[in-house]
């Protein structure tokens, strides 16, 4: 994944993705449009490589 810039995109399937980057930490926010999908993915840069840490699924 490329976390070199803040990024927002909309999927044709009814969702949005927003990348939030702060130095060596990143969060991807996946949000459904009118479908209850709410999931956050957390990453950290460790030894120069982005590493997946965890996710929180708050979908309804």
Q: How many individual β-strands?
A: 5
Strand content: over 45%
Provide the spatial order of strands within the biggest beta sheet: 1-2-3-4-5
* Helix-strand makeup class: mainly beta
Model regions low in confidence, pLDDT < 50 over at least 5 residues = none
Mean pLDDT, all residues:
87
Total count of domains: 1
Distance between the termini: 27 Å
Task: Based on the model shown, name its key terms.
60 residues, mainly beta, 5-stranded antiparallel β-sheet, 5 strands
Short description:
The chain is mainly β and 60 residues long.
What does the model show?
The protein is mainly β and 60 residues long. The protein has one domain. Helices cover 0% and strands 65% of the residues. A five-stranded antiparallel beta sheet has the order 1-2-3-4-5, with no helix packed on it. Strand 1 and strand 2 form a beta hairpin. It is globular, with a radius of gyration of 12 Å. The protein starts with 6 loop residues before the first strand and ends with a strand.
């Amino acid at each position: 994944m490329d976390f070199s810039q803040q990024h927002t995109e909309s999927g044709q399937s009814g969702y949005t993705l927003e990348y939030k980057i702060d130095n060596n930490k990143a969060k991807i926010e996946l949000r459904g449009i009118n479908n209850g999908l709410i999931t956050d993915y957390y990453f950290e840069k460790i030894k120069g490589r982005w590493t997946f840490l965890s996710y929180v699924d708050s979908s309804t």
